[in-house]
Amino acid sequence: MIKFSDLADAYGTERFVSDLLARQEVIHFPRCLAMDQTGPLTYVIMEKVEGNNLASFPAEDQHRQLPELIHLLTKLAEVDVTTTCGYGWIKPDGNGSFQTWKDFVEAAFAEDQTGTFWENWHELYHTTCLERDVFEEIYQRLMHLVSYCEPHRRFVHGDFHQWNILSDGERITGIIDGLYMYGDPLIDLATLDRHMPWAGVVQAYREQMDKDQVVIPHFEERLKAAYYFKGLDGLRFYAKMGWSDAYQGMRHFLLGLE
Fold first, then answer.
1. Which of 80, 224, 77, 211 is nearest to 152 (CA)?
2. Tens-level pLDDT at each residue, the chain (258 residues)
3. Domain 1-48, what fold?
4. How many CB atoms lie within 10 A of CB 111?
5. Which of 52, 90, 177, 228 is the most core-located residue (most Cβ within 10 A)?
6. Burial of 208 (0-12, 13-18, 19+ CB in 10 A)
């Protein structure tokens, strides 16, 4: 599989993550076979992983693979990141982009997002269904919980759901495209739960942790913070895309968490 981009260091982070996960044998993640320039474009050649998106299988097939998904969540959280530093988006050198988790959260939702997908995103308050009072209420709730998340610096896939998880219908064969960051691993749990609300993801995760005798400090606060963090991004994305039903569904869920 080959991908092209006109952005500098477009695939540096992906190459780092590929090497990190392959070296620790966490899960079958596409190996980076080559990366180079051709004219103004950067290209990367990645290994093709067997299987189809888990989302393409019936709900009962997805549910049957839930124990393996829970196992995968725990393995991702155990990735050794002690040779790196920082929080938030993983840079091509393998370090996080911010000194603290709070710094990252504040930057992620700051008004000035020049040069990113969210440039001028405050205009959405005037041109779409995005409600400033709702967004700011949820943001304040998130900031109130940030201190619970700060001590937990782990590898986070960042977009852990059925469209980025591959399966042959019987087993998980690999994971692909993420929004890779260092932070609280419960972000991946919250993401999967919101994409599979019918599957009892959180209950299955807690039962497995109890079985393994793993104590999760401040689980409720951290999980709620993870919902808020991913949910805020979901609200502005749904508004930008004009997906009003999805926006209303996320809005209702987030406001109901308090």
1. 77
2. 888 888 767 788 989 999 998 877 767 788 888 888 888 888 888 888 889 999 999 999 999 999 999 999 999 999 999 999 999 999 999 999 999 999 999 999 999 999 889 999 999 999 999 999 999 999 999 999 999 999 999 999 999 999 999 999 899 999 988 999 999 999 999 999 999 999 999 999 999 999 999 999 999 999 999 999 999 999 999 999 999 999 999 999 999 997
3. Phosphorylase Kinase; domain 1 (3.30.200)
4. 8
5. 90
6. middle
pTM: 0.94
The CATH number of 51-255, from 3.40.630.30, 3.30.70.2210, 3.90.1200.10, 2.40.70.10, is 3.90.1200.10
The DSSP 8-state label assigned to residue 206 in this structure reads H
Residue 25, classified by CB atoms within 10 Å of its CB into exposed (0-12), middle (13-18) or buried (19+), is exposed
Identify the DSSP state of 146: H
Distances (CA, A) of 56 to 112, 165, 226, 233: 37, 10, 26, 25
Domain residues of the chain, as ranges? 1-48, 51-255
